[in-house]
Amino acid sequence: MPTTEIVFIVTLVLYLAITRWKRRREDSIIPEPEPKQPEWRDYSPIELQEFNGIHRSLVFLAIKGTVYNVTMGSKFYGPKGPYSAFGGRDATRGLAKSSFDDEFIPNAEADDLDDWSDLNDDEKQTLDDWKAFFDQKYPAVGRLISNKEAAEARAKAENVIPEKTQKN
């Protein structure tokens, strides 16, 4: 046998052995369990920023006041994804306008939420289509509340005195 044929046969046998070994190894890997779904709660825009895939492994975004867990789509909404501008943010206006520009993503530090009242009919329809998509694809984990509302709720919670310790 010429040496070229021997090299070819040895290479072919090695290739087949390696691919079968890899396939068996991949089949034996047990998939990781799905992460536990967070409990429903209110998120302020400042709190929502933490869920951008950088600060935490979870990726959330808000549309029309509903916060969605888009972690399973983090290749789109997480860091380096094509829609990463919306990760950890209120994506309502940006999706309605089909734009990733910063001018269409509300400032997370603002006291009040964007009310979208100035959107035209086409933008409202686009937004409704995106909302329907997210409703079907991703679990809702909470609602978006204003920073002002979140601060008032925290202040109220801090000022509540348990009944057992109240003086008459």
Automatic annotation (TrEMBL):
Subcellular location: Endoplasmic reticulum
Pfam families cross-referenced by the UniProt entry: Cyt-b5 (PF00173)
GO molecular function: enzyme activator activity; heme binding; metal ion binding
Principal location: endoplasmic reticulum
Gene Ontology BP term (one): ergosterol biosynthetic process
Superkingdom, natural source: Eukaryota
InterPro entries xrefs: Cyt_B5-like_heme/steroid-bd, Cyt_B5-like_heme/steroid_sf, MAPR/NEUFC/NENF-like
GO CC aspect terms: endoplasmic reticulum; membrane
Keyword terms: Endoplasmic reticulum, Heme, Iron, Metal-binding
Chain ranges of the Cytochrome b5 heme-binding domain: 43-145
Presence of the UniProt keyword Iron in the record: yes
Family of this protein: Belongs to the cytochrome b5 family. MAPR subfamily.
Protein name: Cytochrome P450 regulator Dap1
Lineage, top ranks: Eukaryota, Fungi, Dikarya, Ascomycota, Taphrinomycotina
